[in-house]
Amino acid sequence: MKLETYNKKRDFSKTAEPEGKTAKSGKELRFVVQKHDASRLHYDFRLEIDGVLISWAVPKGPSADTSVKRLAVQTEDHPMSYIDFEGLIPKGQYGGGTVMVWDIGTFHAEGYEDRKESHQALKKQLKDGDIKVVLNGEKMKGSWHIFRLKDKEKEWLLVKGKDEYANAEEEFDQHSVLTGRDLAQIEQNIQKGSLKKKLLSLLKM
Ligand code: MN
Q1: How many domains does one find in the chain?
Q2: 12-21 pLDDT, tens per residue?
Q3: CA of 162 relative to ligand 1 center, distance in Å
Q4: How far, CA to CA in Å, does 151 sit from each of 99, 131, 147, 154, 155?
Q5: How many angstroms separate the CA atoms of 156 and 72, rounded?
Q6: pTM for the complete prediction?
Q7: What share of the chain is helix, strand, coil (3-state, %, to 5)?
Q8: What pLDDT, in 10s, does the model give residues 111-147?
Q9: Neighbouring residues of the ion ligand 1, judged by CB less than 5 Å
Q10: Ligand 1 centroid to 119 CA: how many Å?
Q11: Which domain holds residue 87?
Q12: Angle at 101 between CA 86 and CA 17, to 5 degrees
């Protein structure tokens, strides 16, 4: 069972995070990046492959500069229902701290427009430790590569592929794509605006 580790690490009577179950995938594969202010601030990059969110913790977050390779440490698979989790994990619980939905969207394997072929390719790429995707997020767009370091089990590098979205001048926005809040506002549980309709429909896919 893929989500065994995820479930073991958490006490669902104490955390608001969802319990782990595998899910059938929808029309398009989805990804999420969650900014996580835990013992150390990091970004959790998660790709839907085979009914779960394959996950990496990226300490410095993604960079649009194609010459910058960001360390991405693979963590336990997360359930699809985690994709819109934003809020607080209680102190003392695993991953205790604030979680923001930093980016969300759909994706496919680079060079595979067909949903089924894309998914097949991704399963193989995951096994081989060399994943090339086209992201359609609010912040992360176009070609991105994530590949495992030689002779390493959990250490990967995340790098922007060369395309029209590469080397953008401006920095990524640091608010939630779901609620527009920054980390402090999420921590204080300040509600701001309403969920964006387009993103909401994505969550229901
Ligand atoms: Mn995390």
Answers
A1: 1
A2: 999 999 999 9
A3: 28
A4: 32, 17, 12, 10, 9
A5: 5
A6: 0.92
A7: 20, 35, 45
A8: 998 999 999 999 999 999 999 999 999 999 999 999 9
A9: 36, 44
A10: 25
A11: 4-204
A12: 30
